Amino acid sequence: SGTYSLKTTNRTANWHGPSLDLTGVLQKEVVYEVTGYVKLMGTPTATTNFKITMEQKKFGASTSWTTVAQASVKDTEWVKLSGEYSYDEDLDTLLLYIESENAADAYYIDSVTIKGMGLDTAAGGSIEQDLPALSDVYADYFTIGAAVEPEQLTKPESELLKKHYNVIVAENVMKPVSIQPQEGNFNWAGADQIVKFARENSMGVRYHTLVWHQQCSDWFFLDEDGKDMTQETDLTKRAANKELLLKRLEQHITAIVERYKDQVKYWDVVNEVIDPAEPDGMRRSKWYQISGTDYIETAFRTARRVGGPDIKLYINDFSTTDPTKRDLLYNFVKELLEKGVPIDGVGHQAHVDVEAPSVAALSASIKLFAGLGLDNQLTEMDVSVYTNDQTSYQTVPQELIVRQGHRYRELFAGLKELKDYISNVTFWGIADNHSWLHNRPIPRRDAPFAFDQEFKAKPAYWGMVDPEKLPILTQKLNVFMGKKTIDGVEETAWKTAPWIRMAMGDQQARFKVAWDQRLIYVFVDVPDTTVDKGDQIAVFIDQNNDKTATVQKDDRQIVLARNGKRARGATYRVQEYDGGYRLEASISTQEFSFDQEIGFDLRITDAAREREPVVISWNDLTHSQNRDTSKYGVLQLKREMKLIEALPGTPVIDAEYDPIWVQAKTITTETVVQGTAQATALVRTLWDEDYLYVWADVTDPLLNKDGTEPHEQDSMEFFIDENNARNITYEADDAQYRVNFDNLQTFGSNGPDDRFQSATRITADGYIVEAAIPFKTIKGEAGVVIGFDTQINDADASGRRQNVVTWYDPIGNDYRDTSYFGCLLLSAGNEAE
């Protein structure tokens, strides 16, 4: 628009371009729409790519670049570039510039605009004074904390903070770069304000953090000549630099702890020192590059010396539910304790989402560290509504908010069970108006806390305080086709399905569901020590899943009595056992088909107390299924589960076809996930007490391992779910193993296992992979059913993966989701010889 534009010529590098300094102009945690137009001065010989780039540098950190928008330009017409940008931490540099991939390009720039999208985080409204305070509700379990910025202490959210929380922590102003931006120049203002607020309101304080590799001033790592210590090669100078760094660290910690030791009880001494990608598990921060792990010991010993025995010292990290990282942290902490390093506890950041990690994984990690005699604290908790980096909402759907409420219920029910191991749960914010998760990693709004941006209680709050007040969450369950024998016995066919657990208070039960064309099968296990006339299981089916507030003609309601009383439209059997009963039933329905969804609920009544029966339901927690189908859950009808037997036997892992493999059952990879089935494999399995063994004979005439990513290379992958729980995320018993045709081993999220063995051999038409996969949480035993799948990665001549073929999973999610694994039965058949 207008008459003039900015002419850009004589560039000598493709990243050169006119820049605009936006430092101090844009606000953090605000989404901006950035738009600009470009036009080439001459017709290009080939298409070129233009980008709007933001150059940003955080205090004490290195420079990074974000591509805001890009477009291909192939002629001399004006081309629009448009995208969204935001940042979430204080910056000392922020530049916008427009570049092209060809340094010789000469071009015009015009009509550059930057427009805020109305996402400033100011909130309004008053708090709800009549709600039970979170700190009171959890007084018998652990303290409840929140992260704050100093400016929030004079804003309306301070009233919310004072009502519900009894511990506070600084979100940023106690980090090294904020406290000591230049050597000897301490900035106490923000930290003092937080400590003063806590004292005036009878709150505890957590200090975060004495040492971190981020938000740490560069001067720490410069030698006396101002040079970067990490670049020094002279051994004598390196030793002197290490001594200087540790001296600076000791002075830094001494000043802070001396100032706050009487007001701060809990201290994050070091933060995020573990990196599973490194051979020894230690993050290659500048601290580590210069001093090894000595900086960690120095930090803890200095804090104890200055602060005395009454302050509590923590090592803090994220993803402590990941088994690999958890174990690396555990072994490191154990080693430090054996050296006499004064560590009182482990801080689990607990940045979780509405799906993962599981409560079981969190519990396992907390109990593991408690076994060392350590306290545990959840130090930065939030529950993102997102489970990936792609989905984006500016207004989070209410369905997700409700789902989050049930996730809070699940998490805090589990945490209450761990009260003997946990002293504090701190949220990384007060309410949804302010969170580091906003616009991370893409422009979007998150809602991670118990209170919304108007400070009103969300379902997440009620999930913590009174789960019976939660709105109904429609749970969905994949169920697989397959006929069942109705005898009250869990036959092998049932073992392919996971147990679905139900609970209300101390009453628990579990069930499984399957289907056939005109039948729904249920298998229910009810712990109930007393047999009473009113004990029963009610099954509710909404065949067209229309979820109405009244019962329709297509809806089925079947009552299955513990005493075996006849039920119309159902065949069932009851088997009593010491402490409860199991019930198996088939229920007649209309004809169903693959991928159909039907409404379903299950309600169990324990009539031990005639006037006050205990009732638990799977989905409708109001137990109103008889008159209202809108609160039913949903069954998603899937194709028949693949089940193959694995015979007992122990082969030699050498990629040679031993006679022991002859009797092993064979499966074929034939489910095409990507491309075609140009590469296929015949796979055999055996087992013993310690291992599952796999033989894969791969037909692939073109072998290539040029891809930089292991999954792009010609390779076989094996997936294991030892408890066949079929979760949508990996747990401790789950594993992914990958072996390429040249015997390069790589592993999934649960990391490498030294016990895993493999051998490969190239054949005339492909390659052989023979592997021994260690059992991690079980012992091999006849009758056990485990989740299992295998996958071929098939690369073309250029080194790009073109084809992906599995045994069972049709969508290619095996690497993160166990719900689409097939099943292996560890058979008691004749041992292979």
Structure, briefly:
With 833 residues, the chain is α/β, with parallel strands linked by helices.
Describe the structure.
This protein has four domains: 6-116, Sandwich (Jelly Rolls), CATH 2.60.120; 134-179 and 194-212 and 230-469, TIM Barrel (Alpha-Beta Barrel); 477-638, Immunoglobulin-like; 643-826, Immunoglobulin-like (Sandwich). Helix 5 (235-260) links the parallel strand 11 and strand 12. With 833 residues, the protein is an alpha/beta fold. Helix content is 15%, strand content 34%. It is globular. The model is unreliable at 118-123 (pLDDT under 50). Strands 29, 30, 31, 32, 33, 34, 35, 36, 37, 38, 39, 40 and 41 form a 13-stranded mixed sheet that branches. It has eleven helices and 41 strands.
Keywords:
eleven-stranded mixed sheet, alpha/beta, 833 residues
CATH topology of the largest domain: TIM Barrel
Low-confidence stretches: 118-123
Distance between the termini: 82 Å
Q: Structural class, from secondary structure content?
A: alpha/beta
Shape call: globular
- Roughly what percent helix? 10-25%
Q: Averaging pLDDT over every residue, what do you get?
A: 92
Main beta-sheet annotation: 13 strands, mixed
CATH class (first level) name of the largest domain: Alpha Beta
Classify the beta-strand content into a percent band. Answer: 25-35%
Number of strands: 41
CATH architecture of the largest domain: Alpha-Beta Barrel
The count of domains is 4
User: What's the number of helices?
Assistant: 11
CATH superfamily of the largest domain, called what? Answer: Glycosidases
Radius of gyration, Cα only, in angstroms? Answer: 30 Å
